[in-house]
Design a protein that fits this description.
alpha+beta, two-stranded parallel sheet, 6 helices, 15 strands, about 30% strand, globular
């Protein structure tokens, strides 16, 4: 019939971030793609960034110990958007990275910000993501920064790592906090440069979409992962609108659902 004929015309889709403007619309897309056996891929390009892939590999290998804290900064001077605030423009990338790193949904989200250029569009937003195991992630996004900053810091119980996208360096710091009796004591060590392939993230992302089409296997940035990012975005926006009031989400581990 007509509905079946229309369904056969729907192709595999690569959609730029975010997946949709609302969680409900995103869920409809994921359900539709699943029902039709189509590939639905979201443009979370940082998940294909070789430097951040190497950073994630350090964390997942246990080299850092237990991950206690992650901070992600994405700031520059412009480009100022008129249709969206900086949360929806910049933060989807950072949220996608954090969900992949922690392999879980946060159970509490809070966000505050400033509307400096226009009364209804946030130019700077700070987001805190709390996890039940005590781990914390923090995101700062702004287009009112004098210099370009794109940096991720991961603090573990044994070591720490920093990726700086301006210098294109991933540094493993052999530093931690130990104890002398009950007194916390900083323990310093060397800084080790970690090498990674010099590949273009956008190219890797496009190759992943073509591979998914050819193999019919969902990419890592599939509709389900895009929907998880959208859920956190909506919660952060609700907190931002509420003056920083925390928003709770039901906790869920992704360890069996999100491939490396």
């Amino acid at each position: 019939d007509w509905a079946e004929a229309e369904a056969t015309r729907i192709e595999d889709v690569f959609v730029e971030k975010p997946l949709a403007l609302t969680y409900e619309n995103g869920r409809e897309l994921v359900t539709l793609a699943s029902g039709l056996g189509r590939i639905l891929m979201v443009g979370h390009v940082l998940e294909y960034h070789p430097g951040l892939t190497a950073l994630q590999a350090l964390a997942s290998s246990g080299a850092l110990g237990d991950i206690r804290y992650l901070s992600s900064t994405r700031a520059s001077l412009g480009k100022v958007r008129n249709e969206e605030n900086v949360l929806w423009s910049f933060a989807p990338h950072d949220i996608a990275l954090i969900l992949r790193m922690f392999r879980a949904r946060p159970n509490r989200i809070s966000a505050t910000g400033g509307n400096f250029l226009r009364p209804d569009i946030a130019d700077l937003v700070q987001i805190s993501l709390n996890f039940p195991n005590g781990a914390l992630a923090h995101i700062l996004v702004s287009w009112l920064n004098p210099t370009k900053e794109q940096r991720q810091v991961v603090v573990g119980s044994q070591k720490m790592a920093v990726y700086d996208d301006v210098t294109k360096e991933l540094v493993l710091h052999h530093k931690r906090i130990g104890f002398d009796g009950d007194q916390p004591v900083p323990i310093s060590g060397e800084a080790e440069i970690i090498s990674f392939p010099a590949s273009e993230p956008l190219l890797k992302e496009c190759e992943a979409f073509l591979a998914a089409i050819a193999t019919r296997k969902q990419p890592i940035t599939d509709g389900a992962s895009g929907l998880r990012v959208l859920e956190v975005l909506e919660a952060a926006q609700a907190s931002l609108d509420g003056g920083g009031t925390p928003v709770s989400l039901p906790y869920e581990e992704f360890s069996t659902k999100l491939p490396n």
